[in-house]
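User: I'm putting together a teaching handout on how multi-component assemblies are represented. Below are the sequence lines for each component of a complex, exactly as they appear in our records. Could you produce the 3D structure of the whole assembly as structure tokens, so the students can see both representations side by side? Please keep the chain order the same as the input.
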Amino acid sequence: MTENNNIVFTPERLAKVQEIIARYPEGRQKSALLPVLHLAQEQFAWMSQGVMDYVASLLSIKPVEVYEVASFYTMFHLEPVGKHVIEYCRTGPCVLMGGEEVFGHLQQKLGIKKGETTADGLFTLKEVECLAACGWGPCFQIREKYYMHLNNQKVDEIIEELSK
Amino acid sequence: MEDIKPIMFKVTVDGVEVEVAPGTTIMQAARQIGPEVAPPAMCYYEPLKGSGGKCRACLVKVAAGSAKDPRPMPKLVASCITPVQDGMVVENFTNPQVVEARKGVVEFLLLNHPLDCPVCDQAGECHLQDFAFENGVSTTRYEEERRTFEKEDIGPYIQLHMTRCVLCYRCVYTADQITDGRVHGVMGRGDHAEISTYIGRAIDNDFSGNVIDVCPVGALTDKTYRFKNRVWFSKPVDAHCDCDKCSGKVQLWYRGDEVIRVTARKNEWGEVKEFICNTCRFEKKKTSDWVIEGPTKVNRASVISANKYGANLIKKPDFALKLAESQFKKIDDSRPYVNDMAEIKQSEDYKALMQKNESFFKK
Amino acid sequence: MSLKILTEHCSTPGIETFEVYRKKGGYTAVEKALKKMTPDEVVEEVKKSGVRGRGGAGFPMGMKWSFLAKPEGVPRYLVCNADESEPGTFKDHYLMKTIPHLLVEGMIISSYALGANKSFIYVRGELMYVIRILEKAIEEAKAAGFLGKNILGSGYDLELVVQPGGGAYICGEETALLESLEGKRGNPRNKPPFPAVKGLYQSPTVVNNVESISTVSWIINNGGDAYAAVGVGKSTGTKLISASGHINKPGVYEIELGLSCDEFLNSDEYCGGVRTGHRLKAVVAGGSSVPIVPGSLFLKTANGEDRLMSYESLSDGGFATGTMLGSGGFIAFDETACIVRNTWNFSRFYEHESCGQCSPCREGTGWMQKVLNRIEHGKGSMSDIDLLVDVSKKIEGNTICPLGDAAAWPVASAIRHFRDEFEWHIKHPLEATKPGAVYAGAVLV
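Assistant: Of course. Below is the structure of the complete assembly, with chains in the same order as your input.
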């Protein structure tokens, strides 16, 4: 196993893991994988091998079962990310609402392209598919928060605010 | 116990009728009839529970669902996972829609395949080669760049060549069902999905070598045999040994007097029924390690059967017809054509031609 | 104002709380069902209502319920599909964040009808804030005695679990959703067996969309016949339409099925017309997977009849001239929209979201995306158009799950109706790749 002794959930999250496992029938604790991965990303920011092995041990499943799942779902970051991960929608309806221009502006503003992180480690840009907010687009998401009806000016304000 | 005759279902595949037990799949029913009507299979592997349904090579047309409800099924179905009904009528090589769909599947599977058969150890016993030869066309319409993968080291015995993989999942099921601890799986998704351990770990346990035998292509090959030979230059011999881990029933592949490879025995569908351990596969390469039973009866699965890609295939019923049909192009007769001679006679071309051939036309 | 079955109270302040929802008549349907009706009677009412699955397939919900296998001693599950990810669709998102108790109430009654004691709401992971809203609603309902053990003294127990997804459109396919709920990759399962026989944890399972389940309270309160009286023909009741794109008022609208497409697009109660100063070019009527049609074919059928917002009317004309109601994701395109670019965009979506399990979808979606990318960026050739049609045909119907069809239809329909625009892109690459360039020959409404 890997030496990742510092990878351990906070007591609150550990309690939460137990609570989540208890939601499913006996022996079906693997069902807890996605919720626990979300908890892990909340605390550890990204899915290092150590984090995934830790999750596997908590759920008594093989590490490879975690790798397979974490790499299938796009919400899990398999590489280190910045403090704020901006996940912007690139799909048709947001594009119709001017998404390409707004996110072009966003890239210019941060000086990075999709998939990159700013030098100060503050922002990571991630291009995602439809966020189910088509009528309220263009939109992006930072952690749990949705930012909708975006335009260049709003983007500037949000970046200013988060840069403080 | 009273002797009760089990209820049997009557199924027709490509015009041949067979009686099978309820619960049998179309694929199994067709295989009972014989190889001439058995659909091709790239992912289905009978000994592995849960395999099948993925490659779509075995799509067939159900022309009549059952005797009770003889309506055809609206879509082509994967024969390996579709159970038969009594009175079902299945069209396989005889249905143009199926032939067309399979051509599509061949094209899809070859889209990102490197076609490096000349240097691939699997060449000659590759199911993708067979499938493409029997069901595909020899050209591609794909102009884009092919997908490639970084090489991953998965230990001393097995070579993973992901670029050749067709994502049949057989090796994943094998690791789950034959070995005691799976360390590899399918990572990523869509056209970036790949077989991997994710962390470059060795696939290492007593039965791991079986993933080589189940792989339909050259994605997982035997490192101890790598580049040593072409399969058609070698001679398979059935042999066994007293092994405490497995059945010990193997095939030894000889070149001259030398055992260059050991594999499990495969049936006529290329399936291993008795998996073997790594000691037998990788470490017993001397004739003296084995009790020789005799030459392997070679059938379909290898080029070492004479004329693998030649005349014998034409003997398959309807194969020539199938081939002709697949290459037949309908003449486009919807185009307007000029039939007004008066107009033609006015053209400069016609006049020039007439002058040139004056003597001929005056005859 | 037309009848609002789902959204009547959406603008009431505080409707997300149990208190306000209850004051507005919430949870009376649970009381009625659990105290006065047998589970079979509930199923019967839902059958009578004729309500059809609102996730996109449009299969009658009552019938789906009646297929559920009921072997002795085996638990049954109800799973709510809240994995809304179809481009153009955001109605479930709206409903859950605005009036979460409507779904919770529907889940209680539906679970009771199906005999499920543990039910799941699978919400796409991106909507974590909605998950927290739902979890709060469940807590409140539990505190008020509508969830948990022996609900309202009826002897019926129910536990409701909200499960987050992880970012995968394919998990909206019901068997992929079940796989995901079991903690696995979202690979759709081979069928048979169907979930009604072997679903979650190999037990009989019903999977229903958020909007479908949210109709149940109204049906129980007012009767299935009353629901069936709304709408037209086999398109009974109301439907939430997510409206986006080039219209004056994007948003979520509840319509009575059978509303004319013209009224939906142009009246101020709904979309408020195409963006002022622009004209309608094309419409995607039911989410990105359904065939795209020119504006004229959205408003009128090929026979010149008025097109209605109903399952039957929208699909009138089949693939040739019709489309589908699907999940109700209405996207309008005005003359500034480039059909080639949009088709490429959608095909990129399907390539990205293909699970990669079966070969036609895994390889075909990527192939179409690459060819469309070439055409869009001025490197296409005329043969590419027929190639796209052929590839789409080889995917359609040949895959494990409907994602293959969903990827094929937008491409095939765009070429069918807008072939000249594709040809223009190929013949005039320099012109077509200029920023903001749009084909001038499109027929507008």
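A couple of points students might notice: The beta strands of chain A are 84-89, 123-128, 140-142, 145-147. Helices of chain A lie at 11-21, 33-44, 49-59, 63-72, 92-96, 99-110, 152-163.
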